[in-house]
Write a structure and sequence with these properties.
12-stranded mixed sheet, 19 helices, alpha/beta, 3-stranded mixed sheet
């Protein structure tokens, strides 16, 4: 059966039944049909948050087939509930970019999915659209002020760093010339688009604690300078109120369910290679307020998602995970060991052994946070007993608990061993995580701490442009912000072709972007782009719908 056939074979429970499992009063639900609802922020209970077992699911360096973090997260939630632990999944909303590009959906897979999976992967409850509109409203207000003769702030158009956004991979929008059309069209200049998942509004939504905080953060967005060199912020345009109005529903987390009828909260969707890569603080705290175990995930490998989860999200939210699950697949490790994509389903113990250093690198960096680690082997039918034993033996030598996970094939029952090991790890956890760097360090030192401790590299090299930008941002008072590295997800380095666990490398920073509203600085490494392009054969070409409304090719 395909993903969509499996999802359609299950009759979902009414969303009020899912809410009842979490003891949410029915009157608190804002229904979006019978199978999804918005949740108000007053459900959050910070005293309960302190007592919760927060579990982070991350992974080794991803490969084209995908490693299955969401599938593992959902299977783990279902398994914990089988073991009579009150568990909830808190994950990100999918972006349309990957859905119509190459990755496909992000609602789990097989018998470990969240539903309604078609809605979740398409327009869902409109959160992405609201983020896009708030972002582009600010762009419109900037253009209007530049054009104004009576209320102009004197913005120098050449200094405007704020970009429009759209939730689609469109390489043609990376760099554009805007405001053509003569005097009435504004002042022509070069600008561009980010994908919505990488927009600062997305970051702000995921880091805001309530509507008032959201509005304040929107007001502190840096947009450019005046002709006299004075910085201009969104609040100078009186933009924050209208932006917050557009986001008034988007800030509320979304409640759905797994195929096994367990609760899942989905909210926010920043990518981890070009943004902070985790769901919203309010969604995570809501899950922690309503359960004993909260299972969440961070995008791509631990060098990106988990690092930002700890150093940005947990620091801002004042939370700490009790354990970290590292998802690994035998086929991915063989790929990192030199096996070609066409051959990774074939048994090759030698390639597997050569690929194990990639897992070692992720374990080493995660150990720096001081949180217990469990390795989850996301199993496939092509994995052989010899390969499985090699990976198990390797983890045992490292004194890291390891479990086989069959979430795709068996749902929660396939993740019981993983659940038991996660419970054991969480119960043994007593410490708060240790950040990679002190916020008082200068930005260059923060980046080098990440490079050396998390990536296993040596130095961080700045381009002339990056160096001049950093000086400016530090003079503006942004030097004490955390760092959100924009780096390829395909390697520990900034070169996507260097697989495995490279040694003796530097990280090269091309330029910086400042997210003053979100509260972090973004170094852009190598040739990373904040507006992805479509692959040679986009997934969109295979997606269609018949006269009865049946969708084909979406997954």
């Amino acid at each position: 059966m395909t993903e969509i056939q499996i999802a359609q074979s299950v009759t979902p429970k009414h969303i009020k039944e899912i809410a009842a499992k979490l003891a949410i009063p029915e009157e608190k639900l804002e229904y979006y049909g019978n199978d999804k609802a918005k949740l108000p922020l007053d459900i959050i209970d910070n005293e309960k948050v302190k007592k919760n077992n927060l579990i982070l699911v991350t992974a080794i360096t991803p490969t084209p087939p995908g490693e299955g973090k969401t599938t593992t997260s959902i299977g783990l939630v279902d398994a914990l509930n089988i073991l009579e632990k009150n568990a909830v999944a808190v994950i990100r909303e999918p972006s349309l970019g990957p859905v119509f590009g190459i990755k496909g959906g992000a609602a789990g897979g097989g018998w470990s999915q969240v539903i309604p999976m078609v809605d979740i992967n398409l327009h869902f409850t409109g959160d992405f659209h609201a983020i896009e509109k708030a972002n582009n409203l600010l762009s419109a207000l900037i253009e209007n002020n530049i054009q104004s003769k009576s209320r102009s702030l004197g913005i120098d158009p050449r200094t405007v760093v704020w970009k429009r956004c759209m939730d689609m991979n469109d390489r043609g929008l990376r760099t554009i010339v805007a405001a053509l059309g003569g005097k009435a069209g504004g002042v022509p200049r070069e600008t561009g688009f980010n994908i919505t998942a990488a927009s600062e509004i997305m970051a702000i939504l995921c880091l805001a604690t309530d509507l008032e905080d959201l509005k304040e953060k929107c007001g502190t967005i840096y947009i450019g300078d005046t002709w006299q060199g004075k910085p201009v912020f969104a609040k100078d345009l009186n933009a924050e109120g209208a932006m917050a109005v557009l986001l008034k529903d988007a800030i509320k987390p979304n409640l759905v369910q797994t195929l096994e009828g367990n609760p899942a909260i989905i909210h926010g969707g920043p990518f981890a290679n070009i943004a902070q890569g985790t769901n919203s603080i309010v969604a995570t705290k809501m899950g922690m307020s309503l359960s004993d175990y909260t299972i969440t995930e961070a995008g791509f490998g631990s060098d990106l998602g988990a690092e930002k989860f700890m150093n940005i999200k947990c620091r801002a939210a004042g939370i700490s995970p009790k354990a970290v699950v590292v998802v690994a697949t035998i086929r991915a490790l063989k790929y990192h060991g030199g096996k070609s994509l066409k051959e990774i389903t074939q048994e090759d113990v030698e390639a597997l052994v050569k690929g194990l250093p990639n897992l070692d690198g992720h374990i080493a960096s995660l150990k720096s946070f001081g949180i217990p680690i469990v390795v989850s082997i996301n199993a496939f039918q092509t994995d052989t007993e010899a390969e499985i034993q090699v990976l198990k033996d390797h983890c045992q030598k490292l004194a890291i608990p390891v479990a086989l996970s069959y979430g795709w094939e068996k749902g929660g029952k396939g993740c019981l061993d993983l659940a038991e090991k996660v419970i054991s790890a969480a119960e043994s956890s007593t410490d708060q995580f240790m950040p990679t760097y002190n916020l008082g360090y200068n930005v260059h030192i923060k980046m080098e701490k990440i490079c050396q401790t998390i990536y296993g590299g040596e130095n961080v090299i700045l381009s002339d442009l990056a160096r001049s930008q950093l000086v400016k941002y530090e003079v503006m008072g942004f030097g004490n912000l955390p760092v959100c590295m924009a780096k390829t997800e395909k390697s520990f380095t900034d070169d996507q072709k260097r697989l495995g666990r490279p040694k003796n490398f530097d990280i090269h920073i091309r330029e910086f972007e400042i997210a003053a509203g979100a509260g972090f600085i973004v170094p852009i490494a190598g040739n990373m782009l904040r507006m992805p392009g479509l692959p040679a054969t986009p997934a969109a070409e295979k997606i269609t719908i018949d006269k009865n409304g049946i969708i084909e090719g979406l997954f």
